[in-house]
Amino acid sequence: MCGIAGVFYRARSVDRDRLVAMREILVHRGPDDAGDLVEGPLGLAHRRLSIIDLGGGHQPMETPDGRFAIVYNGEIYNYQELKRELENAGAAFRTHSDTEVILHLHARFGDDAVKRLNGIFAYALWDRAAKRLLLVRDRAGIKPLYLAATSDGVAFASEIKALLESDLVGRTLNEAAVPEYLVFRQVAGPRNLLKGVEALPPGTMIAVVDGRAGDPQRYWSARQSIAPFKGTYEDAVDATDKALNAAVRRQLMADVPLGTFCSGGIDSSLTTAIAARHSSHQINTFSVGFHEADWDESRYARMASEACRSRHHELRIDESEFAELLPGLVWNHDLPLNFANSVHIYAVSRLAREHVTVVLTGEGADELFGGYPRYYIPRMLQTLNALPRPLRAGLLGLLQLTPDSRARKLVSYAKRPPYEALLFNATNVDPSLVRRALGNRIALSTEFRDQCIREALASGLDLVTTLSLLDFETYLVSILNRQDKMSMATSIEARVPFLDNDLIDLARSLPLEYKQTYRHRKRVLKDVALRYLPAEIVNRRKSGFGVPLQAWFAGDGAMAKLLMDNLQLPRTRELFDTGVLERVVAEHKRGRDHSEFLWGVLNLSLWRQAFGV
User: Which domains does the chain have, with CATH numbers?
Assistant: First the structure.
């Protein structure tokens, strides 16, 4: 895994010192090697974390004829098969790296080469003959790639902080994106909170010629239809088992020590169990927990470790350490942290780095196999709305009194237009609160999300599949960005077997009833898991990877102090209506949970301080 950066000016030469500064701020992504290439207006830079072909993968790398040069971040899991195919067609290889395979593949197939790659990647390919730079990102957005296109040229990098070392990007808040961040914990699509910087969308490539970026071109999209699975439910269980085993086996390739993040949930535990079966060595597993017993799930992680016979390592984070780590991790993340458990992922990555260089994780399973309980909400609303009004009102009244947050969420959506149950499914922050807190100055923009939902419904997808698609293009991208930034901050490569090309395609082809019914979530995946894991792990209630923010913000400890200090800063008071913020804090301390909103405000403040925005 690596860090890449570069510039392509329109009418001036590259300053190598500035290019090196872009490269060196990414040293955590690649502490093992560094390289750069400067050719007039073009500059490419690379930091390397050596995983495969430890001595032969130096970048930038070029084809033997000198036409193509590449800087690349990622792993291509099918590179050995592709290499054999290319060798049979006459290609001669000088290294054992997957980087060289990408070069030869483009030399033979042009831009269509990317469609043949199964892996996690972001790369920049320079074609000297055409004077054309091609920027490419993997299907799911597992590896990040940002760019800034201006009248002077284009800069790109694995992390935004590297773009800030160029002379093409300023440090200006994109205020129009603030409401979306506060409501959804992320800004969907290309734009983000830093004005002038965009993320290259997953499954997309963009060509830069003469320092001018063209329009992004989709080479793959989850919105494209796929042939439906033909087979019984039992056939689907077998197919999923086979595809997951193949994905894990492919992703075990490494010339360095490897382990798994194993939280004790079904996804990471299943990944661990299969990895243990295919590994020639005892697997190392890593988990992180809480001192607060109600939030700690360490016993399930230990149970999974025992079932898989792994060498298990665990740690716990308390409130003081959490508050101490948080500001620095906002800098590592490039943007305000979407998820509070990012701190724990960093901590467990730091622990893992003492033993391994690569970890396998369980991200992607919930989006692909219908795992989120909130996916029930639109379907249940349809049933509720069909009831006679008195019966419906009585049932909603009873649900309002339950302590279950999911039931109360259902009640809140029953009072809104049906479309909002889709649009706001992944958030617990009231948009009207955000609007008031911003002084009614900035409107909430949901254009990217609206487009995704409209296209899904127009194509005839059911409500659950529509939500899965929306999450795949928004929520999952933010989860993957969190995983990448927190693990790479410790020079750990994180791999995601559930987002293997073949497994993505299989999951998308399955009918809804194979994935989720009113009685079962991740139905087909759980039946696979029962072949490898104790039923107590497979059948336990999904709890997510929560953090006790509600209690921390309502108390008088380190996190409450950090929050109050940041609410008093001039940047915060200029952006927000301080009266609204004070009322929210007071309500939270009296027992009304505003922890998600307060988390967003706090992280926005920490980010602006870290980057001078």
Answer: 2-218 (3.60.20.10), 222-543 (3.40.50.620), 548-613 (no CATH)
